[in-house]
Design brief:
51% of the residues lie in helices and 20% in strands. The protein has 16 helices and 14 strands. Helix 13 packs parallel to helix 14 and helix 14 packs antiparallel against helix 16.
């Protein structure tokens, strides 16, 4: 069954065209035969009737009926007329049916085959009839012969002119044969045209058969649906001809984008540059719809001409977010190690003082450390009840201590357990980046101070991180949350605050930046307690 369906395109087109032409030819031939046959029958009947009337009006024929041997005069005339009009028979008979003329002279004097002379003799009418004579089935024309006897006219005989139906059919067949030659020529031209058409279509389809194209189409859709990279194809005019599911999701497009101008949808893209240069571009980093994409563009060539571009891209933002999250977890781990290292050093010092017998100095050191951490620990463990925030702050306290930064938690801070929708990785991204940036911002200050405040009274949870650094310019404030914008030196910068902003948006919250008159910067994050799970 599949072999029957998977026939070549040329065979399909050739079969279709020839079948269609044959159908039209047979239909036209049938109609033509019918019309020709009808027309020839009508003409023959008319000719037979007119010939019969003509013979019946001939003076020589009428005069012959008054002679002793009518056939001697009528037979030559009848045969001459028969020859001229091409009739099968011209019969002149008297009222009794005796024939005075017949193609076979030996039958003259015999009776006509009983038939339909009655109407001509009795009613004196001329008419056509179809009957079977001695020569076979024929169309006849009959006309009465009248002789004037002075006071009246009398029908003395009948003229019968007959044409064989066989001869009429031969005429029809001759015309059909001529038409068939033209039909054959049309069939040959149609076959040749269908072959050329099939070859042209196969050239346009790169020699592939329809079932192969259908198979490739299904496989292409399956491949495009399975790959996670976005794929967009455009034609030579920059109009989008194809995009896969991943491209629609990444770029926020729908099926209506197909057929639209790529330049119109993405004015900042340089895809059309590949159409002009014909040179592929690989691993180009671009920003589209607040996302960082890694793009590869490949021109599509046909006969040495650029006919389109296929652009594939992957979302670097997701990869970057994962890297940043891992980095934050790593920072958190390093902060805890820093805190452990700090206290280990202090324990070594305390151990040394005790071994040297400097008990009073050791007691003073313990009291100072206990005094400085007592308030922080009370706030951290008594007023802030969420373990995730406690862990992050413990790590940052250790890091600040190692950096010689005075990190304090506002005594008015208060926090219950955070909603389940706020995950530890998100908290690390937001609090970790804000506190780290604050610690880095005060490194050049003589008195390095960073303050943290949290409050969940009311409908919002408020996180606030303040530093006494140099602050930022107006221009920097406007680009603060832009991807890859950073005031710090070095590569792979500018993702921290953009990720903070993204996470806060996921929480349906807001973030504010303020620069007090005394200097420094304050970041405040507002997160609704109730939100989508």
């Amino acid at each position: 069954m599949n072999k029957l369906l998977n026939v070549s395109l040329q065979t399909k087109i050739l079969t279709l065209v020839i079948s269609l032409i044959l159908f039209v030819i047979l239909l036209q031939t049938g109609i033509s035969v019918y019309l020709e046959s009808k027309e020839i029958h009508e003409k023959t009947a008319k000719l037979a009737l007119q010939t019969a009337k003509m013979v019946s009006f001939m003076p020589a024929v009428k005069q012959a009926f008054r002679s002793e041997d009518p056939s001697a005069e009528i037979q030559p005339v009848a045969e001459q007329v028969r020859y001229e009009v091409g009739a099968a028979e011209v019969i002149v008979s008297n009222r009794q049916g005796t024939m005075y003329s017949y193609p076979d002279a030996s039958l003259i004097g015999e009776k006509v085959i009983p038939g339909d002379n009655y109407m001509a003799l009795v009613f004196g009418g001329s008419y056509n009839s179809t009957a079977t004579g001695r020569l076979g089935p024929m169309i006849r024309g009959k006309a009465p012969i009248f002789i004037d006897y002075g006071k009246y006219e009398r029908s003395v005989g009948v003229v019968t002119v007959g044409f064989l139906l066989e001869d009429i059919e031969k005429q029809v067949l001759k015309k059909v044969a001529k038409s068939s030659l033209w039909a054959l020529a049309v069939l040959m031209v149609g076959a040749a045209g269908s072959i050329l058409l099939a070859r042209n279509i196969k050239k346009d389809t790169l020699g592939l058969e329809p079932y192969q194209i259908a198979s490739l189409y299904r496989e292409r859709n399956a491949v495009l649906l399975s790959i996670k990279e976005g794929v967009i194809a455009t034609d030579e005019n920059g109009m989008i001809t194809m995009l896969n599911h991943s491209a629609r999701e990444m770029l926020g497009l729908n099926e209506e984008a197909i057929g639209q101008s790529y330049k119109k949808l993405f004015p900042s893209s340089h895809l059309l540059r590949v159409l002009k240069t014909g040179k592929p571009e690989t691993n180009r980093e671009i920003e589209l719809n607040d996302k960082v994409l890694i793009v590869n563009r490949t021109p599509v060539e046909e006969n040495g001409k650029i006919v389109g571009v296929v652009s594939s891209f992957r979302d670097k933002t997701e990869i970057q977010n994962m890297i940043v999250t891992l980095s934050e977890v790593q920072k958190y781990s390093e902060d805890l190690r820093a805190q452990t290292h700090e206290f280990t050093n202090k324990l070594y010092v305390l151990s040394g003082l005790l071994q040297l017998g400097e008990y009073e100095e050791a007691i003073n050191m313990i009291q100072n450390e206990a005094g400085s951490h007592m308030l922080q620990n009370r706030i951290l463990f008594d007023q802030i009840r969420d373990a995730k925030v406690q862990a992050i702050l413990l790590g940052k306290i250790g890091k600040a201590s190692e950096k010689k930064v005075e990190f304090t938690i506002d005594p008015n801070s208060s926090l219950q357990m955070l909603p389940g929708r706020i995950h530890i990785s998100q908290l690390i991204t937001v609090l970790g980046n804000l506190i780290d940036n604050a610690i880095e911002a005060v490194q050049d200050q003589e008195n390095k101070k960073v303050e943290f405040f949290v409050m969940d009274v009311g409908n919002d949870i408020v996180f606030e991180v303040a530093d006494n650094g140099h602050g930022m310019s107006e221009e920097a404030l406007n680009q603060l949350f832009t991807i890859r914008f950073s005031l710090k030196k070095g590569t792979d910068r500018g993702y921290g605050l953009s990720n903070v902003h993204k996470v806060v948006k996921e929480w349906n919250g807001t973030i504010e930046v303020d620069q007090p008159e005394g200097g420094g910067t304050v970041f405040t994050v507002y997160v609704p307690k109730k939100g989508e799970k």
